Amino acid sequence: MGAKFLPGFVGQTVSARAASAVVLCTQEEGSHMLPAVAPFAVGVITAPLAKRVAKPLVRGVIKTSVGLALEVKRAVIEAGEEIQGITAQAAAEKLASSARTGGVESAAR
After folding, report:
1. Do the beta carbons of residue 9 and residue 20 sit within 8 Å?
2. So what's the pLDDT on residue 77?
3. CA distance 36 to 20
């Protein structure tokens, strides 16, 4: 392929070189290389379709992720408030207990 392939490329545009390469590769004896035109055409046809399908799918994933993040944030805030309430209640009980005993803990505790 080397010697007869290179002289044909001189002075050709890139697309003409690619077309020549596809033709030469498919015309050589024993060549099992498929032309690149068919996969390229499939890509050109399916790319807009994939974009139309992928964009709403990605948008849905992002909306779900944001909603989930907001729910987790809300749950963490509620848990923090619950812990603060329990802490305040325990502190109030401790102060009330200390006030009753006059600031001296009993030996039983």
Report:
1. yes
2. 97
3. 12
Reading the block at residue 85, the tokens are 């309430």
Q: Which residue has the tokens 């390229």?
A: 40
Whole-number Å distance between alpha carbons of 8 and 41: 25
Residue 18, C-beta contacts closer than 8 angstroms, at least 6 positions apart: 36
Q: Are 43 and 49 in contact (CB under 8 A)?
A: no
Amino acid at position 82, single letter: E
Q: Tens of pLDDT along 28-61?
A: 455 555 566 677 777 888 888 888 888 999 999 9
| Per-residue 3-state assignment (H helix, E strand, C coil) for the chain | CHHHHCHHHCCCCHHHHHHHHHHHHHHCCCCCCCCCHHHHHHHHHHHHHHHHHHHHHHHHHHHHHHHHHHHHHHHHHHHHHHHHHHHHHHHHHHHHHHHHHCCCCCCCC
